[in-house]
Write a structure and sequence with these properties.
Elements (H helix, E strand, L loop, with lengths): L8 H14 L12 H13 L13 E3 L14 E12 L5 E11 L3 E3 L3 H10 L2 E2 L1 H16 L3 E10 H4 L10 E8 L4 H13 L12
Parallel strand pairs: 2-5
Antiparallel strand pairs: 1-4, 2-3, 3-6, 6-7
Helix pairs in contact: 1-2, 3-4
């Protein structure tokens, strides 16, 4: 039956049982009897973003141009680094997981920093490709906050690369989406340098001990 997250758990459980039969398994053996229900629960968690509005977490904003004296001008870039996310590739329904970095130039209003992980979760909890996910995050932030500029950097490891096909266990994919003033090469380069400055040092690299 469909529920508010938009996922029909009963149908997924029935189809999972059929899938197990199709690969030659016995869905009634002890190790698999609960698997269809578990898969249905996982699907509700991994794909619940399809039924949610990604701009919803950005609805409550705070003015930075008015308030206690002295009044301020629009702020410089706000950067949130190291937001963990996971998604499912729409090509093979295999998982991906990685880190998102967000930078934006506020207009008159800013938003609580905890809103950004929720936006990413909603958009990532859908069958996705990383390239589109980054663009969707950038568009959502730019439109909902009327931001002067946005940069979204995603760095993720994909099961379709590490678990099948080329099986490149050390491979990750980086995508960049930019909007407005931060799409200008010099401004984007500055943001990328600030993001990189916050990444942990490579313990295998040389340097001071």
């Amino acid at each position: 039956m469909a529920v508010p997250d938009g996922v029909d758990r009963e149908r997924i459980a029935a189809l999972t049982r059929e899938f197990l039969l199709a690969i030659g398994e016995d869905p009634d053996r002890p190790g698999l009897t609960k698997t269809p229900e578990r898969v249905a629960g996982m699907a509700a968690e991994m794909f619940g973003g399809l039924a949610q509005d990604a701009a919803g977490p950005l609805a409550a904003t705070i003015s930075v141009a008015s308030g206690p004296a002295p009044e301020t001008e629009p702020s410089g870039p706000v950067i949130v680094r190291g937001i963990r996310f996971r998604s499912v590739c729409e090509h093979h329904l295999l998982p991906s997981a990685g880190t998102a970095h967000i930078a934006y130039l506020p207009g008159d209003r800013v938003v609580g920093l905890g809103a950004f992980p929720r936006v990413i979760d909603i958009l990532a909890n859908r069958p996705q490709v990383q390239e589109r996910l980054g663009e969707q995050i950038a568009d959502t932030i730019a439109d909902a906050l009327d931001a002067r500029g946005v940069v979204v950097v995603l760095d993720a490891v994909h099961g379709c690369v590490t678990l099948r096909g080329p099986q490149q266990s050390g491979s990750s994919t980086v995508t960049i989406a930019s909007r407005g003033e931060l799409a200008e090469p010099a401004a984007r380069a500055e943001i990328m340098a600030l993001i990189a400055a916050g990444e942990p040092a490579d313990p295998d690299a040389g340097g001071a001990r």
